[in-house]
Write a structure and sequence with these properties.
Elements lengths: L2 H11 L9 H9 L4 H8 L6 E11 L7 E6 L6 E6 L5 H5 L6 E11 L3 E9 L1
Parallel strand pairs: 3-5
Antiparallel strand pairs: 1-2, 1-4, 2-3, 4-5
């Protein structure tokens, strides 16, 4: 078993705490602060929590050793969702996906900024 496979297995063993917010809520919360450092403080409680997001595929990056990046267009047109897939079990499903396919992703919130949310350890539902 390779290192990447072991890391993927470790992630599935961690209890998941899901948040019931949309990416737009997190982006607006972050952007509501006058300074980035204050925005970061506002979204910190959401980091490392899990969220479920549905949207249209905007792009899928090529599969690399570290995985693939999927960009979703979601309901809030001004917000992007960046989803990092690292487990090779998703490679086949992602490789046959088309731009504008509607998918649902489960991922761990890694970062939030004024225009995007980034998820790690993503899975397709």
């Amino acid at each position: 078993m390779g290192i990447d496979e072991q890391q993927a297995e470790d992630v599935t063993d961690i209890p998941r705490s899901f948040v019931a917010v949309k990416p737009g809520y997190l982006v607006n919360l972050y952007a509501s602060a006058p300074l980035e450092i204050q925005g970061q403080t506002l979204v910190d409680p959401f980091l490392d929590k899990w969220m479920r997001v549905s949207g249209l595929i905007e792009s899928i990056g090529g599969w690399r050793v570290s995985g693939s990046l999927v960009v979703l267009a979601i309901d809030d047109k001004d917000v992007k969702l960046y989803a990092h897939f690292t487990d090779v079990k998703w490679r086949d499903r992602l490789s046959v996906s088309q731009q504008s396919d509607y998918i649902t992703i489960i991922g761990r919130i890694f970062s939030v900024a004024a225009r995007w949310v980034e998820l790690n350890d993503c899975e397709l539902e």
